[in-house]
Backbone:
């Protein structure tokens, strides 16, 4: 006799992050910050899971600070990305965010960051879905 099949409602993992940008201290051009996560050996935008009851905006700023060492000012909300991560559905809300003051210190989660031109950032991002966020950021900044 087979055991009955039970279907537990899968909880969507809620996360938030930012496409962090600044003006280059060298030439004033736009730079986007990418983080390298050694656990996955990938380059992505700073993001992470929300804490229970945490406001997504607050979570996005917390993740930027934890992963990059920089404060940030949130701008426009960018598209929400939905995908499977480790077999579970995940939803990541993103915002454009201008970098404030800070300094990166490597840690267990993020060992390197890069400030790159939008073209270079698109080329360095590991996941194609993250590249579209750079394009949306550029369109947002053109209109402000």
Residues:
């Amino acid at each position: 006799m087979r055991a009955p099949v039970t279907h537990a409602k899968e909880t969507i993992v809620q996360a938030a992050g930012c496409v962090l940008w600044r003006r280059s201290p060298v030439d004033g051009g736009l730079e986007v910050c990418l983080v390298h996560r050694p656990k996955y050996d990938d380059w992505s935008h700073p993001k992470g899971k929300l804490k229970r009851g945490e406001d997504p905006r607050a979570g996005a700023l917390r993740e930027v600070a934890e992963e990059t060492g920089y404060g940030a000012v949130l701008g426009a909300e960018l598209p929400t990305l939905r995908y499977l991560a480790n077999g579970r559905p995940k939803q990541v809300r993103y915002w454009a965010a201008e970098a404030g003051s800070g300094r990166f210190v490597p840690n267990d989660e993020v060992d390197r960051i890069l400030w790159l031109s939008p073209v270079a950032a698109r080329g360095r991002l590991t996941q194609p879905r993250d590249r579209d966020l750079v394009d949306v950021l550029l369109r947002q900044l053109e209109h402000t």
